[in-house]
Amino acid sequence: MAAFLNLTKPQQRGRKPEPMPVSQLGTACLVRGVLDTEGEVEIHGTFHGRINADCLILGAMGNVEGDIVAREVRIRGRLMGRVFALNVLLEETADVTGRIFHNTVTVARGARFEGRMPWRPPSYFEALDQLPETQP
Amino acid sequence: MTMFTRNDKDTAPAQAAPQPAKADTHQTAAAMAETKRPQAYAQPLNAASSATHAPSVSVISKALKITGQLESTEDIQIEGEVDGDVRAVSVVVGANAKVKGTVRGEQVQLSGQVDGKIEAKKVMLTRTARMSGDVVHQDITIESGAYIDGHCRPEYGKTEVKAPGLKTVSSGA
Q: Shortest CB distance from B65 goes to which of A37, A59, A92?
């Protein structure tokens, strides 16, 4: 029975007491800088810089250059840079160049990925205050 | 011993199974060449995601903070915090929003706080607005209750204020 109790732990990690509002950057939007949120962000436009979020969705028209730090990341668009996330999902239309630091990753058939996907334990993401320097 | 003397009838149907596929190899090869990538598989999802999930309007919700530059050729609604310049056709700064920097646009509606400058053709300050800085406008509405600390100059378009949102962003592909 103890083993079953352990299985429920990963789900508790994902719970949020209240639903956070969803932010979105439209297709006509261009942002340079740092984006910080505790909630969910959808990016359909162009973003250069760093994103810190709980859940990030990069739309099919989206284009990000830079680092993404999140708990959950879904990619349908173009990304050049690094991802630090527990759960990463590359959908069919994804086009990613860079590194994906992940705990679980799903790559759909048709997605394009070039680079490395290093696995990290969940504790790595909890203690992620400063991003490591990596060679491109 | 009976184990090894069973008749092999069972294996016959298994061998027969792949044969129908061989009959139309010509057709399948042609189909394979036509769709190298699994398009039939990917297309319905593409169409659905681009049709339903590609809004041109941007919403910065209350839990979000942007440090840097924000530009759009469409509308932006800010409910969160922006530390930097904002430029769009129409900018709405919500009641609990904070912007530190210049807000440029054709139309700016302010209900929150701006610490910097507003440059817009049409400016509207609602009763909850808090504006610290200059306003360059052509047409201004100030509701009673709005707070302004700065100059209001009706000089939009007269001085060398750049027209907003002329840069194309979505060059994608």
A: A37
Q: Please name the amino acid found at residue B146.
A: A
- State pLDDT tens for residues A18-39: 566 789 899 989 999 999 999 9
A126 backbone dihedrals φ, ψ, rounded to 5°:
-70, -30
Q: Encode B132-160: b = buried (16+ Cβ within 10 Å), e = exposed.
A: ebbbbbeebebeeebebeeebeeebeeee
Taking the Cβ of residue B69 and every Cβ of chain A, the question of whether any pair is shorter than 8 Å is answered with: yes
Output the pLDDT for position B160.
58
Comparing CA positions, the residue from B74, B68, B22, B29 lying closest to residue A36 is B68
Contact B65 A110 (CB under 8 A): no
Contact A73, A51 (CB under 8 A): no
CA atoms of B147 and B144, how far apart (whole Å):
9
pLDDT tens digits, one per residue of A93-113 = 999 999 999 999 999 999 999
Place of tokens 């859940």: A55
Q: What are phi and psi of A75, to 5 degrees?
A: -120, 125
ipTM value: 0.76
Tokens found for residue B59: 């919403």
